[in-house]
Amino acid sequence: MAATNDYAAIWDVDGTLVDTAELHFVSWEALVAELGRPFTRADFAATFGRRNPEIIRHLFNERFNDAEIADLGYRKEELYKTAARRGVDLLPGARALLEGLHAAGFQQAIGSSAPRGNVDLILELTRTEPFFQAIVSMEDTQRGKPDPQVFQVAAAKLGVAPARCLVFEDAVAGVQAAKAGGMKCIAVSFVGHHSDTALGQAGADRVAKNLEQVSVQNVRELLAVPF
Predict the structure, then answer these.
(1) Nearby residues of 169 by Cβ (< 8 Å), 6 or more positions away
(2) For residue 151, what are the contacts with CB-CB under 8 A and spacing of at least 6?
(3) Average per-residue pLDDT in the chain?
(4) Considering only CA atoms, which of 154, 19, 146, 143 is closest in space to residue 87?
């Protein structure tokens, strides 16, 4: 019979563990303004959750080469990290669920489109790094969500079969990535980037208003973890 540590929870970061959307928006807005282009809320909605190279190509098409894109991405993240250091809090219910899953013996990982430096900073600021046995960030993948690569790499790092993994997400593309990877998914609509309906239509196994509505028992039931 499988033990609880043969099952895993994989966490998206932005919009799921923390709400740093506005920090990202103002960072993109400042960078893009330097390049002579406005950055609108519609631009933000169309690119949220994607990897920086994909966002820059979406905004500027073929204007920049790969080296320039890497430099622009670095500059944007420096703006973001400066803003984040002023303070970031976990979203409602996140710490209790992290603690509960840890106590129950589940493995946990981060599966994020963000650069590793951003992820490390958020885990440091929120004091949550000890909960995670693996971290997957932008540097570990070549394809962004809705491609399942980020979650597949996380599962592989943990040594857990995809069918025994549950993903926590807040974005349609992330839900699609989890399901494409053969994983269960609980979507959280607290930050409001996507409606409950949109998250459900994307394939979420459950949609919750916030993580206070999600329990370890819910995770056990979705993954059919034996008692």
Answers:
(1) 12, 16, 175, 177, 178, 185, 186, 187, 188, 204
(2) 10, 111, 136, 162, 165, 167, 177, 178, 181, 183
(3) 94
(4) 19
DSSP state of 90: B
* Per-residue burial over 103-132, b = 16 or more CB atoms within 10 Å of its CB, e = otherwise: ebebbbbbbbbbbebbbbbbbebbebeebb
Give the domains, in start order, of the chain with CATH numbers. Answer: 4-19+89-223 (3.40.50.1000), 21-84 (1.10.150)
pLDDT(180) > 50: yes
pLDDT per residue as tens digits for the range 20-58: 888 999 999 999 999 999 999 999 988 877 889 999 999
Count of CB atoms within 10 A of residue 66's CB? 8
Inter-residue contact 169 to 187 (CB < 8 Å): yes
Pairing mode of beta strands 107-111, 206-208: unpaired
How many CA atoms, within 13 angstroms, populate the side-chain half-sphere of residue 190? 23
